[in-house]
Amino acid sequence: RVQLAESGGGSVQAGDSLRLSCTASETTFNGYCMGWFRQTPNNEREGVATIDGEGNTSYDDSVKGRFTVSKDNAKNIMYMQMNNLKPEDTAMYYCAAGLPSRFCLSRVKLAYNYWGQGTQVNVSS
Fold first, then answer.
1. Phi, psi (5° rounding) for residue 16?
2. DSSP secondary-structure letter at 73?
3. Where are the beta strands (DSSP E) in the chain?
4. How many Cα neighbours within 13 Å face the side chain of 33?
5. Mean pLDDT of the chain
6. CA 4, CA 102: separation in Å to the nearest integer?
7. What's the rounded Cα separation, in Å, for the pair 62 and 74?
């Protein structure tokens, strides 16, 4: 079973940056589909950014050009650098992992089997 732990959330002002980290327990981390999702109260969890086993990435239109997902296979850590944060980025951010599939870069929940507990990001105007 893959265990995931997020860190790096916090409260910032609009225009600031944060870097989220997701540490995975699984030693075969580098072959998994990995992603970042976010959720606000009363809304569905939505895919923000994903990265597959080959390093290909995909982003939601709302974060393109501002967020960058990457991973360090040697350390079993996935990152998401978030720049120029906006108040609408306020959410609980979740790390997710799944076996390789054709859905990986589609940013859909069904592609992911394992989830972290989340880290809160608050952006004030």
1. -80, 175
2. T
3. 4-7, 10-13, 18-24, 33-39, 46-51, 57-59, 67-72, 77-82, 91-98, 114-115, 119-124
4. 22
5. 94
6. 22
7. 30
Q: List pLDDT tens digits, range 55-94.
A: 999 999 999 999 999 999 888 999 999 999 999 999 999 9
Query: Would you state the structure tokens that stand for residue 47, as one six-digit string?
Result: 């895919």
pLDDT at 1: 76
d(CA 118, CA 114): 12
Burial class (CB within 10 angstroms; exposed 0-12, middle 13-18, buried 19+) of 17: exposed
Provide the 10 A C-beta neighbour count for residue 66: 15
Contacts of 89 (CB under 8 A, 6+ apart): 38, 63, 82, 121, 123
pLDDT given for residue 27 in this prediction: 64
Going by C-alpha positions, the residue among 112, 121, 122 that lies closest to residue 4 is 112
Average pLDDT over residues 13-23: 97
